[in-house]
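Async update (no meeting this week)

Hi team, since we skipped the sync, here's where things stand on the single-chain job. The sequence we agreed to prioritize is pasted below, unchanged from the tracker. I ran it this morning and attached the output directly underneath so nobody has to dig for it. Comments welcome in thread, and please keep replies under the output.
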Amino acid sequence: MTTPTRWRAIPLPLLIAVLLVASAALFGVGVAQEHGGGTDTHASVASTDTGGHAETGQEGGKPAEHTDSHGQNTGGTEAAGSERAFGVPLESPAAVLVTVLVSLLLAGLVWRYPRPPVVVVVAVFAAGAAVFDIAEVARQFSAGRAGIGVLAILVAGLHLAVVAAAGVLLRRVRRPAPAPALTPSA
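Output:
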């Protein structure tokens, strides 16, 4: 006679940690694939005769030199087509590394210390990352890079799953455990 196998549910803090690690790994793979694939066709900004700016498609993501409104070279370079948040290019190696490290740090924290402040920080981080991931999905599909777009969808889904799991964990942590029922002694 065989005994039935009982499946234990994975603890929520561990699930959140695994989701964060998986999202960090896929994020890193997606960025590496995008920049190492050789098919980077981001639009870059170049000066026109009127002193304004026009977009030109440069292959290979080579840095473009910036010019001011008078056509003078400002000497600054920026990765072609890179988006910025708080003045930092989102796909720079430093920003990618910091994002992955923060994700791994938060995974360890929520796994070891699933207290409400930690869970809230994890949920806010994952929600913010999901916003950027969803924007990346649209950008990748509009650029004709479906493979990287699918990776971005997976990363966004993982981040949204972290938000959902963190919400459930917060509800469990904030709700006190039911008191054991008192039974009269005979």
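Quick observations from my side:
Residues 38-80 have pLDDT under 50 and may be disordered.
The two ends are 39 Å apart (CA to CA).
Reply here if anything looks off.
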